[in-house]
Amino acid sequence: MNFDLEGAAALKGARTERLATQSRHTPRCRILGLGGYLPESVLSNDELGQIFDLPDDWIFSRTGIRERRIIAPGQDTSDMALVASRAAIADAGMGADKITHILLGSCAPDGLIPNTACTLEHKLGLSGLMAMDFNVACSGFLYGLYLARAILLLEPQAKILLVTAEAMSRICAPQSRNVRILFGDGAGAAVIGAGEGPGASVDDVLLSSDGTHGEILAAHGAGSRAAYSSPGEPVGELYFLRMNGREVFKHAVCNLTEICLTILARNRLAPADIDLFVPHQANLRIIEAVGQRLGIPAEKTHLYIEHCGNTSGASIPLALEDAVRQKRLHPGDRILLASFGAGFTWGAALLRG
């Protein structure tokens, strides 16, 4: 086969120039404001230990968690989302009336219909926006960043409210030890916009999934697979979250390590170039294993799991907000985000402070 090297070089040069031109006209995606909310009620290891006959140190050594927050009776996922949203909007220095889109990620929303994003829109005193729910469990914030970047390509002037809110305690069976010691409730929010200025830029997002292993971490409550035949019917076991912890650990460590290395490589970076690693706060053992495989030292990893547990999709924005509060983010810093959730879904993102 004959190959025209000169023609190929010219084509490559033209393609490179075209991509460079495109990048100059692509609006820079920025996190303009962050907000979070954790319920007031605390469920400690000591309280769980009385139920499951487990000492605090046993739970902490396996999870890195001392306590988790639990949503109050009569409180909904949208109520938590509302508090986090108002905080993010205030942090962005704008009014709620400037929001043009609402993206809400949750695997424990208010209900099936209406979607929780529309409920949140109403509670914010807004109407007429694009408001949508999506469910990728713990990967929600990263998938939401990807969606926000796509919206900004179409509408560079958009101001997008990205919220991840999870009432995980509502889908954990009371006697299910392996999930109750892990999960807590909470909400995180970010206002996303384009252009230069303050706020961390979202330089890249990489996502993946594999439905082959869906049943390893699943809850089918109120869906077609666990439908109720009549009012008053007892809630079945399929309603509640089920998890094979060992399998989740194995897949999470492998896939998170791979996707972090991939996003770094395509941005011509090495793990040593990362100033702060903010992983999904799922389990301390997973976080440590991924950090070791990447070669990112513990002092560059931000932890926020001890006092809130695994808040699923809310964990990364909550951890980011905490990192800002602790002054761990500085101008020019390179920040690596990574998350793994049910589906399976996973992703990584690169931010620049």
Describe the structure.
Mean pLDDT is 91; it is low at 1-25. The protein folds into two domains: 29-198, Peroxisomal Thiolase, Chain A, domain 1 (3-Layer(aba) Sandwich); 202-352, Peroxisomal Thiolase, Chain A, domain 1 (3-Layer(aba) Sandwich). It is globular and about 55 Å long. The strands form three sheets. The chain has a nine-stranded mixed β-sheet, sandwiched between helices. The protein has helices at 5-25, 45-52, 56-63, 77-91, 116-123, 140-154, 177-180, 245-266, 284-294, 315-325; strands at 29-37, 41-44, 67-70, 101-105, 130-134, 160-166, 186-194, 200-209, 217-218, 242-243, 276-279, 334-341, 345-352. Helix 8 packs parallel to helix 9. It has 353 residues and is α+β, with helices and mostly antiparallel strands.
Tell me what portion of residues adopts beta-strand conformation: 15-25%
Biggest sheet, spatial arrangement of strands? 5-4-6-7-1-8-13-12-11
Please tell me what the overall shape is. Answer: globular
Q: Kindly report the average pLDDT value.
A: 91
Task: Find the count of extended strands (DSSP E, 2+ residues).
Answer: 13
CATH level-four homologous superfamily name of the largest domain: Thiolase/Chalcone synthase
| SSE succession | HEEHHEHEHEHEHEEEEHEHHEE
Write the CATH architecture name of the largest domain.
Answer: 3-Layer(aba) Sandwich
| Helical run tally | 10
Major sheet summary line: 9 strands, mixed
Structure classification: alpha+beta
Helix content: 25-40%
Question: Uncertain spans, ≥5 residues at pLDDT below 50?
Answer: 1-25
